[in-house]
Specification:
Shape: globular
Strand order of the largest sheet: 1-2-4-3-5-6-7-8
Radius of gyration: 16 Å
Distance between the termini: 21 Å
Strand content: 15-25%
Oligomer: single chain
């Protein structure tokens, strides 16, 4: 079931809706924040389906509507850089709300990010030690990462035919995290673009569940 809450920190622009998808059985359950991509929630069923799939594996999933912090429905490519700090702040505020939610294991938190959400997940984890695991689906390397000194275990999933976020980002993220002592797993899918289909989609979902179970389950 999806519920709604408000995350608040500082200015009114940081007030965003957060959908909750509960795991089956009694809690407390480990937590996953699912960060959507630049398409926003224009196709809400897409992310709700992903959230329910993760929840079915035993995690309480929270889906922040972080574009609400800037009044956007979708991300304009030319504005991603300037709005990234506001979206990061909104997700940081959402994490405060998630940790305070009832029925969750607040010391077992992971973040799954899709595309833009992957970059935000990486940036959030670099500044907040409460994040214990990251799954980055074809996200780019955010500038905020270069000065960071701590990273949780990170799973990188990317297609080698991605024309929107080139696969070079996956290797750059891996190199940076490993240089700072981070634990990194990487899977590159031949022929897959910005989004996975067929066997790659199934494999990525399986790797995600296994990775999250290992580090926060």
């Amino acid at each position: 079931m999806a519920a709604h809450a408000q995350a608040r920190r500082g200015s009114p622009t940081s007030r965003i809706t957060i959908e909750r998808f509960d795991a089956p059985g009694s809690g407390p359950h480990p937590v996953v924040m699912l960060l959507h991509g630049s398409d926003g929630l224009s196709y809400p069923g897409r992310y709700a389906t992903a959230a329910r799939s993760i929840a079915a594996a035993g995690f309480t999933v929270f889906l922040p509507h972080y574009f609400e912090s800037t009044g956007d429905r979708r991300a304009a490519y030319g504005e991603i850089g300037s709005k990234f700090p506001a979206w990061l702040a909104a997700n940081s505020a959402a994490l405060d709300q998630v940790v305070a939610a009832p029925g969750v294991a607040r010391n077992r938190i992971g973040v799954v990010g899709i595309s833009l959400g992957g970059a935000l997940a990486l940036a959030l984890s670099a500044q907040d030690a409460r994040v214990k695991a990251i799954v980055n689906y074809f996200g780019y390397l955010p500038g905020q990462l270069r000065a960071a000194r701590r990273f949780p275990p990170t799973l990188i999933l990317h297609g080698d035919a991605d024309r929107i976020v080139p696969v070079s980002n996956a290797f750059a993220i891996e190199t940076l995290l490993q240089a700072r002592g981070g634990v990194v797993e990487r899977q590159i899918y031949p022929g897959q673009g910005h989004g996975f289909g067929g066997a790659a989609f199934t494999d990525a979902a399986s790797r995600t569940a296994t990775f999250l179970e290992r580090y926060i389950g």
